[in-house]
Write a structure and sequence with these properties.
alpha+beta; 15% strand; 33% helix; 79 residues; two-stranded antiparallel ribbon; 3 helices
């Protein structure tokens, strides 16, 4: 189990520590999937997944499904 700490910038950005990037085999331009479970967040490399596959597993907590889908698609397309 790898434990690392990073800091959140004023823009809400964090640097993924080198040990975690290596463990996930992340490279520049890779997409990451974030999944929350209470006060825990899991990250993993998106791989070749389709956005629709991710949406099928995700639960749009606190927002309508269509709103969630549009928000996620916007985040996905920015990269």
């Amino acid at each position: 189990m790898e434990i690392s700490v990073s800091r959140v910038t004023s823009k809400g950005q964090v640097t993924i520590p080198k040990e975690i990037r290596e463990a996930l085999n992340l490279s520049e331009g890779d997409r990451i999937v974030y999944q929350t479970d209470g006060d825990r967040v899991y990250i993993r490399k998106a791989g070749g997944e389709k956005l629709s596959d991710i949406l099928m597993r995700a639960k749009p907590l606190g927002e309508l499904g269509l709103v969630f889908q549009r928000r996620l698609r916007g985040e996905w397309d920015r990269k």
